[in-house]
Design brief:
The protein is an alpha+beta fold and about 400 residues long.
Length: about 400
């Protein structure tokens, strides 16, 4: 029964109930009808008796009937036909009631289908816009109210989380900058320290830089909602600028950078640049030495597709969704080598979702990985300061 939808359950239960009711009525009608037919037949008396059967009449000719002669007509086989007709009527009423119940229940469950569609559209960045109209049927009014209250609690919780992350990142940024400056100053003033001390200072600088980058990323993620997303962007020049910024890292690892196509969309220049930069930098860092990174841009009427491909070792299938979670790293040793904190792809997902798009691993094997991003070409966001079409 669990495999059936609620509409089919209501239909089957209604048809079953009506069918059982019709069967019970049929049995009572048949028993009472046959009983009274027998009583009438037993009570009839007459000189002339005519038996009418299914094949026709027997032993009766109206021409030979005497005036005033009493006549009794005994109907034979009617009881069987009476029962059969009742069963046909029972079956027809049950089937018709089932069909009627299916369409009536479907109409009655329309608010529930609308509610399910509304729930599917809920995202972290549109909680305030997903409220359901509480002026509904009494059965759905409490459900609507509870759902709206849940959205408010979630919105408040996410806002508090973003506020806490932003405050923490802001408070950490100053002492980290001070630590970094002190380490640089100490290294400059004491160039002749022992090898063990020099190695320890290098480790401290690397970890401080890693914490600084993590703090910067957390601060960016906490402020995403406040960034206006109403700029007209051309992606090809942006990709070229990113290639220029990443050229030293690519040359160090002998990675070839390639770009193809062009695209345009409406969004935030800063955020889309960060999205493309993180994807490209990630492809360079986790590539094989001497490999290549390819950025493909495809423009459609309503969508813009970005594909970033590398020639690395690939991502296991069980991790292809988890890589977009905060602080997740497939290879923690390599992430430490390059100073990664597991926030780069998470930020990519946040930016794509904020622009009404999506990101996923399109293809991955031991020959490389392709990550695809689909973004609306028009302004489908509702950011502060965004133009409303």
């Amino acid at each position: 029964m669990k495999k059936f939808s609620l509409q089919w359950r209501i239909t089957l239960m209604t048809a079953l109930l009506i069918g059982l009711t019709c069967i019970a009525m049929n049995l009572m009608l048949c028993s009472s009808g046959v009983y009274y037919m027998d009583r009438i037949a037993d009570a009839l008396r007459g000189v002339g008796t005519v038996i009418i059967t299914d094949e026709g009449t027997a032993s009766f000719d109206p021409q030979f009937a005497e005036p005033g002669e009493e006549l009794t007509i005994v109907v034979d086989g009617v009881q069987g036909r009476f029962r059969t007709t009742n069963w046909y009527i029972t079956a027809a009423v049950t089937v018709l009631s089932g069909i009627l119940a299916y369409f009536v229940s479907g109409h009655a469950l329309k608010p529930l289908h609308s509610f399910a569609s509304q729930v599917e559209r809920v995202q972290m960045n549109n909680l305030a816009d997903m409220r359901i109209d509480e002026d509904a049927l009494p059965e759905f009014k409490q459900l609507s109210q509870s759902f709206n209250q849940m959205l408010e609690r979630l919105n408040d919780a996410f806002a508090a989380q973003r506020q806490f992350t932003g405050n923490a990142a802001h408070e950490l940024r100053t002492p980290l900058a001070l630590m970094q400056a002190q380490l640089e100053l100490f290294s400059a003033e004491h160039p002749d320290v022992r090898p063990e001390t020099a190695e320890f200072l290098t480790l401290l600088r690397e970890q401080t830089e890693r914490l600084t980058q993590m703090t910067k990323t957390l601060l960016e993620m906490s402020n995403l909602q406040q960034v206006a997303r109403n700029e007209q962007l051309q992606l090809a020049p942006m990709v070229e600028e990113i290639f220029t910024d990443l050229a030293p890292l690519a040359e160090k690892r002998s990675i070839t950078l390639e770009a193809e196509g062009d695209g345009s969309l409406t969004g935030s220049d800063t955020l889309i640049y960060r999205l493309l930069f993180n994807l490209t930098e990630n492809a360079v860092k986790y590539n094989r030495p001497g490999g290549s990174v390819r950025v493909e841009l495809a423009q459609g009427q309503e969508k813009c597709i970005i594909r970033v491909s590398d020639t690395g070792c690939g991502i296991p299938e069980e991790y292809q969704r988890s890589i977009f979670h905060p602080f997740f790293r497939v290879d923690k040793s390599r992430s430490r080598e390059y100073g990664g904190a597991g926030l780069g792809l998470s930020l990519v997902w946040e930016i794509a979702d904020l622009h009404g798009g999506s990101v996923w691993v399109e293809e991955s094997s031991d020959k490389g990985t392709t990550i695809a991003v689909e973004l609306p070409a028009g302004a489908e966001n509702d950011s502060p300061g965004a133009d409303i079409p």
